[in-house]
Amino acid sequence: MRRRTKEMLVGFYGFLSGLHPAKLALLGYLSYIILGWLILCVPFLHRGERVKALDNMFIATSAVSTTGLTTVSVADSYSFVGQFIVLVLIQLGGIGYMTFGSFVILSRKKELSAERSDVGQTVFSLPKSFRIDKFIRSVVTFTVVIELCGALALYPIFRNAGAPDAIWSAIFHSVSSFCTAGFSLYNNSFEAYAGNFWLNAVVACLSYLGAIGFIVCVDYWRVFRGKTKQVTLTSKIILWSTLWLTVVGTVLILLSEPSLQAKPPEEKLMAAFFQAMTSMTTVGFNTISISNLSRAVLLVVTILMVIGASPSGTGGGLKSTTVSALVGVMRSALRGDQEVRFWGRAVPLERVWMAMAGLGFYIFMLVAGTYVLELTETCEFEQTLFEAASALGTVGLSTGITPSLSAIGKLVVVFLMFCGRLGPLTFGIALFCAGPSKSNEQDNDLAV
Fold it and tell me: For the purposes of burial, counting CB atoms within 10 Å of the CB of 431, is it exposed (0-12), middle (13-18) or buried (19 or more)?
């Protein structure tokens, strides 16, 4: 019996080692979702009326994908233990499905296998100059430190505001913010804290740190310690694109949203900034009602959600580096240049191709998801488009239609959230690539 079991395990390991890293990533996230779904179906985790199986699947997928869309209230439908399970799924999804297991292996002084290293490169989209083992250690350390600091900063804010269970609320929202998950213990998100400067500031800091990605944080840490003399091109592009998207998004929302005009100037600016931030970082919190936004601002928010965060971060979307590469292609075409350059450095053709392919897959998934939702739901077109963009971008903002989706509509959104967490291009590679990945010896420090 033991021999047969051993042979089965060896055969299973051989099967996995022959798969493309994208397929392994797909199976990894899928296993987390299925496990989380089964656990959330346990009756004692529910509060009041038992949550339906489909809704538990929806919540598990939303948590692992760090989206934040919900068909039921997490605070009202799940007990403390149930909420804790949701938080664990958020944490696992936020740092990447393979990070925890790899960290355990590394903590035992063992090296990562070649297969696990390849999956790590796929999941994090690392520049070639980064070592995956050191990067994973840095990711776990950085995550623990930031989330702990975030919880300590949020606790007095919730306590002074009279929030129930201020400690648990601080911990939950710190993890949810850094993982850009958007899950909240308040049914109206942070609308009650729209005028609270410190909550807006802390949540924004946590969300930005999660969205800009571990690449930037590790990059600057390496420079600080003298390991390298300068940051990578990826980090420069991420920081500049994040800055400009925030500024442009804030200005457009500030000038275009009628519901903000009656607010005092400082609250109007803070609300516009927070909504731009929460859209582009894909954290998915809101301090103003999304259902009451004008169509012009809904379009702005949708574009920010599609662009999304940065590679190796906890956010979703098309990724800022991908959009930057596409902008570079257009600029080069207008100038008649034969290559794409940033800050005097050429972007490898491989990265440009990946950016173009990523855009194509993303648009296809978004259009297909919106089309099916238009067939199954009775909502306005802009609502279904917004819902599909929010799900695929793993954002979590909604005009309020999520709980009323049909069974098919919920399954469509579940599929979009899963694709968004994995990445539409990675999902496509996982489906159509037959064998293991081909090594690429070209050394560069740009991740797309």
Answer: exposed
CA–CA distance, 385 with 295 (Å, rounded to integer): 12
Cα–Cα distance list, 80 to 100, 162, 168, 181, 293 (Å): 24, 19, 9, 18, 33
- pTM as predicted: 0.85
Structure tokens at 427: 């999902």
Q: Which residues contact 368 (CB under 8 A, 6 or more apart)?
A: none
How do residues 17-44 score in pLDDT, each as one tens digit? 556 667 777 888 888 999 999 999 999 9
Domain span at residue 363 reads 325-432
Of 125, 148, 179, the domain-final residue: 125
Report how far residue 364's alpha carbon sits from residue 355's, in angstroms, rounded to the nearest whole number: 14
**Helix, strand, coil share (%) of the chain residues, nearest 5:** 70, 0, 30
CATH for 403: 1.10.287
Query: What are the two backbone dihedrals, phi and then psi, of residue 46, each rounded to the nearest 5 degrees?
Result: -95, 155
Clarify whether residues 51 and 138 are in a common domain. Answer: no
Does residue 252 or residue 445 have the better pLDDT? 252
